[in-house]
Amino acid sequence: MSRLTLRYRPDPDDEVGELWCHLETEHFSGSAFFWSNLAELPDLIEQMGQYPLKEAAYEWGYDPTECPRPVMALQILQKNAAGLLVTKVELADLNDPTLRLTGHFCTEYGMLERFRSDLGAMLYRRSGEAVLPGV
Question: What string of DSSP letters covers 112-124?
């Protein structure tokens, strides 16, 4: 079964913590993290609330002049008129962004709504995880 997990580990001595992204598909899995204070989550949660979903997307990474591709990228789009969604993920190693993986899987609106709720709770608590399962 495919799934995407976002997990936040706050740094008790800093405003910024580790936002981990773990992707599992039928064929492979991988993880990456980037530094975040979760300021991007309200916009991402709002994007995911659109119906029909046009696109919900966010990229985490270095300044494009330093590294043109993101360390982590998430994109969720409607795949068909029946309401199937496709989740696309790109992950790279924080220290060597040339090491990367990409993957995608399908999910549904009900699962996306639960993911949005979990992201809201993670933002509120400044810790925890949110899981988006595939179908």
Answer: HHHHHHHHHHHHH
pTM for the structure as a whole:
0.92
Residue 21's pLDDT is 97
d(CA 106, CA 4) in angstroms, rounded, equals 11
Task: Please report, for the chain, the start and end positions of each structural domain, with discontinuous segments joined by +.
Answer: 3-133
pLDDT tens for each residue of 46-79: 999 999 999 999 999 988 877 778 999 999 999 9
Which tokens hold the place of 117? Answer: 């709720």
* Strands ordered across the beta sheet of 56-60: 56-60, 72-78, 84-92, 100-108
End-to-end CA distance of the chain: 7
- The topology under which CATH files domain 3-133 is Secreted effector protein pipB2 fold (3.30.2450)
